[in-house]
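step=encode ok
step=design start
structure_in=
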């Protein structure tokens, strides 16, 4: 079963993109500003999906479209400086990944369309008025409906039957999902240990704290910082004998035990469709914010063996992908 298909949250969501022959008239070159949520090198496969979708829609770089990447060079780079550069260039559309980058762009312009790719909770964060009618100049993708905390804890419990203590590893700036994780923990009677990490150098201490607390497993919450460190995080989980669940497929391919979440490239493909619609005249205020309605379950058997886990056959049968 293919669980990667994205659907609009509401009737009247984005339509599939037109054929290449219907792309913008020859002679017009559009400039698209791109603000990745982290260093570009670790996210190229996502932006490659964005580029490929634009090509499928009839946009050719250097002929009728120019892509202006403004990635942060390191942790702590100011997104407002990157956004200011794009506003100064008068780009036609800004595509920003992550709430911090989106917020920086929104604060600097109320006229240039901004496509979220994605935001955690755009309504609560004041980025859009509502999912159905965003208003203003911001629209795009959101993960707000993907409250998968309970499902991730259930997946861990299937792998670790006596699960009672779970450490929650998160970037200190990423707290949007924490209330839902805590609520799921209460319902399932699982104790949680919040482990906020400010920078990469604190990861080892975070894992050591989890072990000292006698955690049975770990939940790793998404952040640009963790995405760039996914291989290291997966290795630390094995080193400290902590079964861990993640939310993006890239973590499983980097050695993580199990992923339960939306495709980390499909957001970028859908973002390209938003760009296409906007360049053809659609207003961001009128384009509903999309959310993923299908998710992927990916199990890394190499990690399972390293952790000494026996994965239930019922869980393997439900998996979209099993990495040997």
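sequence_out=
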């Amino acid at each position: 079963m293919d669980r990667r298909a994205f659907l609009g949250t509401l009737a009247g969501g984005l339509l599939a993109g037109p054929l290449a022959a219907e792309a913008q008239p020859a002679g017009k070159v559009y400039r698209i500003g791109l603000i990745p949520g982290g260093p570009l090198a670790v996210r190229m496969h996502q932006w490659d999906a964005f580029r490929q979708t634009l090509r499928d829609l009839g946009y050719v770089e250097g002929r009728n479209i120019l892509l202006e990447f403004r990635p942060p060079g390191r942790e702590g780079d100011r997104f407002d400086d990157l956004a200011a550069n794009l506003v100064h260039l008068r780009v036609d559309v800004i595509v920003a990944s992550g709430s911090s980058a989106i917020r920086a762009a929104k604060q600097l312009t109320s006229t240039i369309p901004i496509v979220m790719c994605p935001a955690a909770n755009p309504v609560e964060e004041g980025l859009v008025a509502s999912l159905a009618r965003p208003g203003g100049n911001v629209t795009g993708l959101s993960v707000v409906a993907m409250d998968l905390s309970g499902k991730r804890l259930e997946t861990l419990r299937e792998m670790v039957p006596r699960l009672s203590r779970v450490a929650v590893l998160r970037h200190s700036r990423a707290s949007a999902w924490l209330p839902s994780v805590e609520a799921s923990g209460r319902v399932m009677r699982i104790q949680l240990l919040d482990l906020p990490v400010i920078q990469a150098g604190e990861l080892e201490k975070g894992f050591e704290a989890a072990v000292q607390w006698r955690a049975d497993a770990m939940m790793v919450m998404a952040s640009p910082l963790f995405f760039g460190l996914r291989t290291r995080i997966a290795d630390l989980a094995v080193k400290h004998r902590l079964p861990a669940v993640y939310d993006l497929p890239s973590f499983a391919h980097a050695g993580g035990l199990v992923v339960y979440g939306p495709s980390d490239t499909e957001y970028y493909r859908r973002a390209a469709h938003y760009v296409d619609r906007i360049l053809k005249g659609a207003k961001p205020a009128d384009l509903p914010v999309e959310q993923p309605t299908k998710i992927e379950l990916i199990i890394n058997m190499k990690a399972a063996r390293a952790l000494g886990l026996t994965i239930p056959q019922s869980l393997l049968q439900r998996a979209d992908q099993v990495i040997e």
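step=design ok
step=annotate ok -> The chain is about 35% helix and 20% strand.
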